[in-house]
Write a sequence for this structure.
């Protein structure tokens, strides 16, 4: 800067002798400095860009290598599962001791006993056509045990499994668990097969890279990449599983194939997609491999899945209900009712309790508690954390095997009520009730309460889903066995503060909150 300023300043007057030489020297030095500076700065920027590009390529190539290695590790154990349902007769009732002629077809549930006498389909030779399907699977033992989805092999008369090296094996045994949509297929004369590495799905986090391998649209050994988009997802059609959500492309034919981490370990079994078109739209679901290991282990050892239960009817805990019950957040599940003589009843669980923990695990929802309880060890006590009246309480519960006849009951139906019975009407909450004795056919013989006679169309009761014919058993924790007791229980209660009602329907018990927002 000094040399340049000097030269500029010197240009305004004549220079002589040593001064001229000094200025010339300064000018030469400045020119040399500028040239050197230019030579230094410009190549440096280009060099930095080159370094950044090289580093980016290095990271991209490393990720590509990770995907390639994971695919190479997992692909040999991924198989094509081809199932076939043979044509069946579709005429008349099912003969005693014979299989349902609709078994394995979409009509099986519609006609569990076959067609009534005198009815038949106008099909050639009175037969239902056969059908064939293609899915995926993963080998978990070198002597031919394959995990796939129940819906891939359900009702199949014949299942053939094809390996990635072209070998084919016939299935000699199929064990299924429709509740989790998992199945185990045993292959005939198999030995030395490539076996998948099973990982730990509990260690997965949202954002982790995964790849899906399978046979979408019969394009064998297809690999797609994505991330874990969500955990703990619920699908209404599958009652006993919480799913991993991924944006790795899953399409028809991927069902039963593995979801794999970058170490080449199976972390899920691809099962379903969310789609308006039937094809990939960015949301797929996989059963966590830890659940798959437990279910298939039971199927292999026992031929069926033995689940544990504690005996509570559960409901979701929304913000309004949590505030009313004094729970700080929405974590946990609401106890709608306790099954008599169940482990929960023995442990002291009560309706309106909020279960927030089981052993060392926090509870995020009904499926979360269900899954933990089902896999709990039988014959030993477990800790159950509940909130009651806004205060935490720890109970000890010993789980029991889930009864096979446990049923959700039938949908609610309006009951026939006798005319002219005395009623009580609450304008505040928009419902009118009468004594249970006015029910023509008592469907609630084992329960005390008051019957809902009608609800206001724009009232709080209708908004909460209460309808005529339902039985109100309690207001809060207060049992009500007559309209007088119900009137006393709601007296002084306001819609602004809200009231809790324990309701009974043919489907079971539930708790509703009547409250103005």
């Amino acid at each position: 800067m000094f040399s340049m300023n000097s030269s500029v300043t010197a240009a305004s007057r004549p220079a002589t002798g040593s001064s001229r030489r000094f200025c010339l020297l300064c000018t030469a030095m400045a020119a040399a400095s500028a040239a050197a500076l230019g030579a230094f700065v410009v190549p440096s920027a280009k060099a930095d860009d080159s370094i950044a590009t090289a580093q980016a390529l290095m990271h991209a190539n490393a990720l590509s290598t990770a995907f390639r290695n994971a695919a190479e590790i997992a692909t040999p154990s991924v198989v094509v599962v081809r199932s076939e349902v043979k044509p069946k007769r579709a005429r008349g009732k099912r003969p005693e001791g014979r299989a349902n002629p609709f078994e394995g077809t979409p009509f099986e549930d519609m006609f569990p006993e076959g067609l009534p006498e005198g009815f038949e389909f106008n099909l050639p030779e009175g037969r239902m056509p056969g059908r064939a399907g293609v899915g995926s699977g993963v080998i978990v033992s070198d002597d031919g045990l394959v995990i796939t989805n129940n819906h891939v092999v359900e009702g199949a008369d014949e299942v053939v499994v094809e390996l990635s090296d072209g070998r084919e094996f016939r299935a000699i045994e199929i064990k299924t668990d429709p509740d989790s949509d998992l199945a185990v297929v045993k292959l005939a004369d198999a030995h030395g097969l490539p076996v998948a590495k099973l990982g730990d799905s509990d260690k997965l986090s949202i954002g982790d890279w995964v790849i899906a391998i399978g046979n979408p649209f019969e394009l064998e050994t297809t690999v797609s990449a994505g991330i874990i988009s969500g955990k703990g997802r619920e699908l209404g059609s599958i009652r006993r599983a919480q799913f991993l959500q991924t944006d790795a492309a899953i399409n028809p034919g991927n069902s039963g194939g593995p979801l794999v981490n970058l170490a080449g370990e199976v972390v899920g079994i691809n099962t379903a997609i969310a789609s308006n078109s039937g094809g990939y739209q960015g949301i797929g679901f996989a059963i966590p491999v830890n659940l798959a290991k437990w279910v298939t282990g039971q199927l292999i050892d026992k031929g069926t899945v033995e689940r544990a239960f504690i005996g509570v009817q559960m409901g979701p805990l929304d913000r309004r209900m949590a505030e009313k019950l004094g729970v700080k957040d929405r974590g946990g599940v609401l106890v709608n009712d306790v099954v008599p003589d169940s482990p929960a009843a023995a442990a002291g669980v009560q309706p309106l309790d909020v279960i927030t923990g089981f052993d060392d695990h926090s509870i995020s929802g009904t499926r979360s508690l269900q899954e933990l309880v089902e896999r709990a060890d039988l014959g030993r006590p477990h800790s159950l954390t509940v909130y009651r009246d806004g205060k935490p309480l720890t109970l000890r519960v010993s789980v029991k095997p889930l009864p096979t006849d446990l049923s959700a009951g039938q949908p609610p139906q309006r009951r026939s009520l006798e005319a002219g019975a005395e009623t009580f009407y609450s304008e505040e909450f928009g419902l009118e009730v009468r004594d249970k004795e006015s029910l023509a056919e008592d469907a609630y013989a084992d329960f005390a309460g008051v019957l809902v006679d009608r609800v206001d169309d724009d009232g709080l009761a209708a908004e909460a889903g209460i309808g005529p014919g339902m039985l109100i058993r309690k207001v809060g924790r207060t049992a009500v066995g007559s309209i007088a007791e119900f009137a006393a229980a709601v007296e002084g209660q306001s819609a602004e503060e809200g009231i809790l009602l324990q309701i009974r329907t043919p489907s079971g018990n539930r708790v509703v909150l009547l409250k103005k927002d």
User: Anything to note?
Assistant: The domain at 308-401 is CATH 2.30.42.10 (Pdz3 Domain). The CA atoms of residues 489 and 506 lie 24 Å apart.
